Amino acid sequence: MDIDYRVAFDLAPVGLILSRNRAIVDCNRHVCEMFGASRELLIGASFQVLYPSAIEFERTGSRIAPILNRSGTYADDRIMKRASGETFWCHVTGRTLNQSTPHEAGIWSFEDLSSRRPVKAELTAREREVAAHLMDGMTSKEIGKALTISHRTVEIYRARLMRKYRASNTVDLVHRLMAGG
After folding, report:
1. Homologous superfamily of 5-112 in CATH?
2. How many CA atoms are closer than 13 Å to the CA of 31, on its beta-carbon side?
3. For the whole model, what pTM was predicted?
């Protein structure tokens, strides 16, 4: 039996995007459904349309480029934005097609985590980044290094998150983040 790879790409059970220089070259139906946007609106658009803010788009690109350059792959959980403006937790995995210029071309998968991890509190861009790293089990020092900020600054953001989620400690905070509040 011959496999029609276009049909397989389009009907994949996860969102798939082909990228060039952080712009969407192609995407499947699942991406359109997940982000609530038509294929025509997404093709040719910058990945920035999928992020809650331009700052997060820029920071993420800067953070993942050296990792893609080194290993060729990258994965994390992050908050993304639907066309409606609604934010949601998403697992993102990517592979660069050229490690020496990691954003030149790649393939990315997107898995909507909102049914398991709803976004309940209004968070700043930096709070979202710190929350994602906390859920990965990273310490303040590890988060500071990953985000190129001091561990004390991370602790300030963690304290804000604890207030917003009414958590008594970091373990409770991570539990509340995972459960959506």
Report:
1. PAS domain (3.30.450.20)
2. 25
3. 0.73
